[in-house]
């Protein structure tokens, strides 16, 4: 089967890139030909760009707003080339084949018609979160005209337990989702949201990154074997706050371990360009494999802590969606690893052992069920 994968645009997001990598590899293992639909969105439609440049010029020189950037798009493109210089090679090398950038619903329709996909899989990651896409209906395959293409959602995520759709989005997406052949979501709250707002039954499955084995990831970092091993407390924090820093300090002092990081200030537009350069994906994985303890506010960092059997703490990120953490940790009986404040951090939560055999037993069963769902959906 020729299967298109529609996920969020790939960039410097390690989790987003790795879930696409994992899903493509699982599909290949099942005997399918997968093709990533690397959908790109423009900051502004090309036909409006000349007018936008004129307006910015007037603001800068006519109204005296000297900090106005006239050629925003060109600036962002130049910066991205620098920021992604170590993460883009992973995409180029391991996530193949790729389609050309697709910008509008119309071009997605043309793309689907050109490639004649036997199936399109939507997912994983927060593809059903309205804040993360300019046209949410695309991720419910509203552009797909062919009735011969199987429509599948694998581990699609709303990112939050709160309903963020407008009445129009809800009605249109419900209509599209009812045409799907198989629907699965990444969080248990997503099952309820699909039932309540779309009147569709959805299965709860694992994120694609959990469908691969540890050996699959170790193969990726094999070229780095001779590099110095990292030891201590790995900190992977996306949104820095004083309270998170307090948690880091408490854990490091309690364990008497040094702190190290595997990310840069990539999303901080106020930081210098050199500080925003994202480290290689392979080095990101290596950090999790070698860490003694992990502190994070990232969903996929939590996933890799579990896969590599590392003691960890997750600082709940309500802005980015707490339901993702609660759902994942509840599956493995690890809900106590989640905190929302340094005040919740008691010494026993740092030193408490995790029953990894019990976690592995659950992982094996959930992995079997999730793979079976995908296999049956593509029959």
Relevant terms:
12% strand; Rossmann fold; five-stranded parallel sheet; 379 residues; 42% helix; six-stranded parallel sheet; alpha/beta
The CATH superfamily title of the largest domain? Flavodoxin domain
Overall pLDDT score: 90
Number of strands: 11
Strand content: 5-15%
CATH fold type of the largest domain: Rossmann fold
| Largest beta-sheet characterization | 6 strands, parallel
The gross shape turns out to be globular
- How many DSSP H or I helices? 14
* Computed structural class: alpha/beta
Per CATH, which architecture of the largest domain?
Answer: 3-Layer(aba) Sandwich
The radius of gyration is 22 Å
Describe this structure in a few short sentences.
By secondary structure, the protein is an alpha/beta fold. Helix content is 42%, strand content 12%.
Give an account of the 3D structure.
The chain is an alpha/beta fold and 379 residues long. It folds into 3 domains: 162 residues, Rossmann fold; 35 residues, no CATH class; 123 residues, Rossmann fold. Helices cover 42% and strands 12% of the residues. The chain contains 14 helices and 11 strands. Strands 2-1-3-4-5-6 form a 6-stranded parallel sheet. Strand 5, helix 7 and strand 6 form a beta-alpha-beta unit. The termini are close together. The mean pLDDT is 90.
């Amino acid at each position: 089967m020729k299967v298109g994968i529609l996920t969020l645009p790939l960039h410097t997001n390690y989790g987003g890139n790795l879930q696409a990598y994992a899903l493509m590899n699982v599909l290949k293992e099942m005997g399918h030909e997968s093709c990533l639909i690397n959908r790109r969105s423009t900051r502004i439609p090309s036909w409006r760009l000349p007018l936008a440049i004129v307006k910015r010029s007037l603001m800068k020189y006519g109204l005296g707003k000297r900090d106005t950037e006239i050629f925003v798009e060109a600036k962002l493109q130049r910066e991205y080339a620098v920021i992604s210089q170590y993460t883009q090679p992973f995409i180029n090398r391991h996530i193949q084949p790729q389609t050309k950038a697709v910008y509008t619903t119309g071009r997605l329709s043309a793309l689907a018609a050109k490639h004649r996909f036997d199936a399109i899989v939507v997912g994983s990651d927060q593809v059903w979160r309205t804040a993360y896409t300019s046209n949410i209906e695309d991720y419910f395959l509203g552009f797909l005209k062919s009735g011969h293409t199987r429509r599948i959602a694998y581990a699609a995520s709303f990112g939050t337990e709160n309903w963020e759709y407008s009445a129009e989005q809800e009605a249109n997406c419900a209509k599209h989702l009812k045409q799907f052949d198989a629907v699965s979501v990444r969080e248990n709250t997503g099952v309820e949201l699909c039932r309540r707002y779309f009147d569709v039954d959805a299965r709860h499955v694992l994120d694609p990154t959990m469908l691969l084995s540890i050996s699959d990831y170790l193969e990726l970092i094999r070229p780095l074997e001779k590099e110095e091993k990292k030891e201590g407390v790995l900190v992977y924090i996306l949104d820095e706050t004083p309270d998170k820093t307090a948690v880091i300090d408490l854990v490091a002092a309690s364990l008497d371990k040094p702190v190290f990081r595997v990310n840069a200030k990539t999303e901080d537009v106020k930081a210098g360009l050199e500080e925003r350069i994202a480290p290689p994906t392979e080095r990101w994985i290596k950090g999790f494999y070698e860490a003694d303890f992990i502190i994070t506010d990232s969903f996929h960092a939590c996933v890799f802590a579990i896969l590599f059997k590392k003691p960890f703490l997750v600082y709940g990120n309500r802005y980015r969606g707490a339901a993702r953490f609660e759902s994942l940790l509840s599956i493995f009986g690890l809900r106590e690893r989640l905190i929302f404040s340094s005040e919740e951090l008691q010494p026993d939560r740092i030193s408490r052992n995790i029953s990894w055999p019990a976690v592995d037993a659950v992982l094996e069963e959930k992995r079997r069920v999730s793979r079976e769902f995908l296999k049956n959906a593509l029959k």
